[in-house]
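Design a sequence for this backbone.
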């Protein structure tokens, strides 16, 4: 019985720089299930570590689609529990509380998400690896240490590419779903834009007639090329962090890495460099109280939380705290590693 624990991901998943294509879909279902039936344990983020999501299917000698779907299971639970708490019952589309023994219908807004997971399971059960893949061993298959996200990503990528070509054919733009260029638009030959999480694709060329056919929208993570997800469509933005002015967003993993926002030491709200409510050091990210907290906090608390800022930097015109400026002037550059990772800025060398 093939089964995979998708949440939390394995370290191999993280090392591969991509995640299982069902991770966002499973999290979306899990969050709704807990919100309805166990709200005090509703998960805060995909990688918060408190919850687990496992799904799989039973091997069958039959090849009909219904035999695979009837054996599909989706389980949710807390990581400190030995047995799952909730299950998605298919094909009746019900949520079962395995502790209480009660069932409720899957909310209508989740039916397409559950259906996507079912479609994935069918194709995954019929997946035949490419023998030319360097990661594939003809005798033993994929290595025992190979994360499930590797073949799963191949499976779901094929499905999404096929859906894109079917869309072009159904609108009369091409005559066959056999792609002439599998990772390129058959009409303008632009490289297709693909969400790193759900692997859906679209043509990014605005002058191509295929562009308006897709309803996909994209939201860039402030981490840029250092983002684990890289390109992510707005449908896969399930959590993450948005600054107070709502101009800057980071995905949940990059939020955990930290360093992309300044945070008020009193209210802990996130502020981007463009927010006018909080000013902090570009080097070590130390910050003062935001304007609201500075007005509300007692005077002794405000003084205790005060960070002396000097500068600004001669290059990027942002301030730096006194310890960072002293280190830069002495030529020690003790904060360069932090700056390079969290902001991509090496301006610390310009402080005098």
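Sequence:
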């Amino acid at each position: 019985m093939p089964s995979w624990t998708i949440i939390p991901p394995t370290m191999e998943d993280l090392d591969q720089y991509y995640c299982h294509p069902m991770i966002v879909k499973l999290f979306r279902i899990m969050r709704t299930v807990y919100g309805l039936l166990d709200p005090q344990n509703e998960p805060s983020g995909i990688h918060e570590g408190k919850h687990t999501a496992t799904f799989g299917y039973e091997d069958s000698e039959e090849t009909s689609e219904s035999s695979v779907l009837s054996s599909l299971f989706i389980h949710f639970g807390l990581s400190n529990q030995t047995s799952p708490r909730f299950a998605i019952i298919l094909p009746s589309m019900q949520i079962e509380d395995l502790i209480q023994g009660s069932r409720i219908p899957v909310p209508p807004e989740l039916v397409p998400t559950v259906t996507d997971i079912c479609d994935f399971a069918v194709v995954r059960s019929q997946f035949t690896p490419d023998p030319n893949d360097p990661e594939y061993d003809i005798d033993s298959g994929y290595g025992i240490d190979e994360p499930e996200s590797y073949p799963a990503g191949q499976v779901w990528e094929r499905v999404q590419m096929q859906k894109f070509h079917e869309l072009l054919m159904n609108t009369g733009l091409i005559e066959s779903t056999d792609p002439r260029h599998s990772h390129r638009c058959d009409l303008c030959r632009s490289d297709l834009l693909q969400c790193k999480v759900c692997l859906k694709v679209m043509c990014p060329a605005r002058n191509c007639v295929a562009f308006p056919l897709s309803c996909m929208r994209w939201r860039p993570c402030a981490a840029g090329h250092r983002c684990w997800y890289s390109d992510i469509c707005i449908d896969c933005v399930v959590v993450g962090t948005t600054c107070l002015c709502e101009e800057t967003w980071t995905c949940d993993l990059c939020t955990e890495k930290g360093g992309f926002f300044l945070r008020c030491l009193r209210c802990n709200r996130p502020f981007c460099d463009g927010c006018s409510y909080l000013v902090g050091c570009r080097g070590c990210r130390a910050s003062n109280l935001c304007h609201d907290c500075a007005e509300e906090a007692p005077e002794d608390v405000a003084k205790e939380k005060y960070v002396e800022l000097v500068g600004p930097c001669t290059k990027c015109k942002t301030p730096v705290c006194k310890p960072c400026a002293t280190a830069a002037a002495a030529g020690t550059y003790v904060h360069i590693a932090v700056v390079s990772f969290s902001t991509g800025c090496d301006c610390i060398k310009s402080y005098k």
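The chain has a mean pLDDT of 75.
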